[in-house]
Structure prediction request, 162 residues.
Amino acid sequence: MISKVLIANRGEIAVRIIRACRDLHIQSVAIYTKPDEDCLHVKIASEAKCIGEDAIKGYLDAKIIIQTAKECGADAIHPGYGFLSENYEFAKMVEDAGLIFVGPKSQVIKNMGNKNIARELMQKNGIPVVPGTKVLNECKEEEIKEFAKKIGYPVILKASGG
Prediction:
């Protein structure tokens, strides 16, 4: 059971998480950088901790965030969205620190963050996927053109990791 959550985000998303925590009778810890010290999420959280001077940099410092969570007795970290929410290395660091990452397991984030791996996992589990080629960087340009003619235009080329 989670009793205290550090919110590794700011602004509206942090406010929403704090309100959800309040509804669930869970203590909330807002983190903030100096420019955000008067923001609503800082004022309404159960407690608030300053993590630095730089407006954005602190929200991306995984080590400081995890250290702050441990120092204040949080047992979970909620990343919100953006910032570190899709960073599997951050989720892994949280897990390795013995804390709960509120979101997918680090391995799931890693797998779903790579379209080639995600596509392969979906196919292995019988989940339909749209027509596509094998890994593009293993295809010759002519193969890609032939495949595009076969499935019909328009086609989308996407980076596997983006």
About this structure: The first strand starts at residue 4 and ends at 7.
